[in-house]
TrEMBL record:
Residue span(s) of domain Exportin-1/Importin-beta-like: 109-240
Endpoints of the signal sequence: none
One Gene Ontology term, aspect cellular component: nucleus
Molecular function GO labels: nuclear export signal receptor activity
Keyword hit for Electron transport: no
Entry's family note: Belongs to the exportin family.
Compartments it resides in: Cytoplasm; Nucleus
Domain of life (superkingdom): Eukaryota
InterPro entries linked to this entry: ARM-like, ARM-type_fold, Exportin-1/Importin-b-like, XPO6
Coiled coil residues, start to end: none
Keywords for the protein's UniProt record, in alphabetical order: Cytoplasm, Nucleus, Protein transport, Transport
Name listed for the protein in its UniProt record: Exportin-6
Biological source species: Diaphorina citri
Length: 337
């Protein structure tokens, strides 16, 4: 980064870079790696570790250094909890969130790690001590001209959902429930609205559409069926079915709805659209595959065999209908096998 630093910080940075390069060098033997691991461990236990990693993340452009610093933060949070110095802790939070925006040319593993650490911190502090966490993410998602920002916003939402709902030992059971309930009731409706809006704005950009659908898939996997799943949302997701790259993502996103064990009667009109669109998606993404090498396509798009979807969909429909009167299903136009 083109930011002025002090000679002391620069010396520490140079020293850490040298050690990390040595550690990842293929010519470094196991004995030396163990010595280096001990040095890294001692660094992590330093009482001033927060200050050091703050400086490293702020001033370094070396990916080894940034990744190492993020791992130290993660481990420190798990073992010691948050920094006792409120001012330093606040500075660290906003540094980490702002730093992600500067990482457009960084490898994905660095960007994902940065987002994950941000979400980890939010899981501890949001909403009371980190009230603008989601507001900052929403600003990224609402960018009208910056592809990277929109993808970043979608990734933030996806990973935040994963972090907020994952069972970890570093927060209490009551805190987990507090985060999930507040998240679901206060934030998820806005998330669905903004993701849907972004789908419409960026419908010609497949990279952004893929990121948005992956975010939707994550939320569909746990958000209960209700008003947030509108017909307009289902229709918007399914408009990309002719494009194989995102058509499969659209199909897997809809399948998260079909995994649900219970379907409220009020949701049946939307469910009819899900069923109808799912079969259309299967047809659209299966047709081009017949004329291509399936193994090659699977490697390129990382997709499961499409031929399994129709069987699964029929099975899911049968399970769903067990919890609602059959006459309602017939009324929605379902044909039972």
């Amino acid at each position: 980064m083109d930011i002025a630093t002090t000679p002391e910080v620069q010396e520490k940075l140079n020293s850490l870079e040298k050690l990390l390069f040595e550690f990842y060098d293929v010519n470094t033997d196991n004995s030396r790696k163990q010595e280096l691991e001990k040095i890294f461990e001692d660094f992590s236990n330093d009482p001033h570790v927060w200050k050091h990693v703050r400086d490293f993340i702020k001033f370094s452009s070396n990916f080894y250094v940034i990744h190492f610093s993020l791992m130290v933060i993660e481990n420190t949070l798990k073992i010691r909890g948050v920094c006792s110095d409120n001012e330093s802790w606040t500075e660290m939070k906003y540094l980490l969130q702002s730093r992600v925006i500067t990482m457009e040319c960084a490898p994905f593993y660095i960007i994902n790690k940065l987002i994950k650490v941000n979400a980890h911190i939010a899981r501890i502090d949001w909403p009371h001590f980190y009230p603008d966490y989601f507001l900052n993410i929403f600003k990224l998602l609402q960018s009208s001209s910056n592809e990277f920002h929109v993808i970043l916003g979608a990734k933030f939402l996806q990973i935040t959902s994963e972090e907020f709902l994952s069972p970890r030992e570093d927060i209490s059971y009551s805190r987990k429930n507090e985060v999930k309930n507040f998240f679901q009731s206060r934030v998820v409706p806005d998330i669905f609205t903004l993701l849907l809006r972004a789908l419409e704005v960026w419908k010609s950009n497949l990279k952004i559409i893929a990121a948005l659908l992956e975010a939707f898939e994550q939320y569909f996997s746990w958000v209960p069926l209700g008003e947030v799943y509108s017909v307009a949302l289902i229709n918007s997701i399914c408009q990309f079915s002719p494009k194989l790259e995102v058509g499969v993502l659209a199909l897997t996103t809809l399948n998260e709805i079909l995994y649900k064990a219970l379907v409220p009667n009020s949701f049946l009109p939307v469910l009819s659209h899900v069923i109808s669109h799912s079969f259309t998606l299967i047809h659209n993404v299966s047709t081009p595959i017949k004329s291509f090498d399936w193994q090659l396509i699977s490697q390129e798009f990382d997709i499961m065999p499409i031929t399994h979807f129709q069987t699964y969909l029929k099975g899911s429909l049968s399970s769903l209908l067990e919890v609602v009167p059959v006459k309602h299903a017939w009324g929605c136009g379902y044909v039972l096998g």
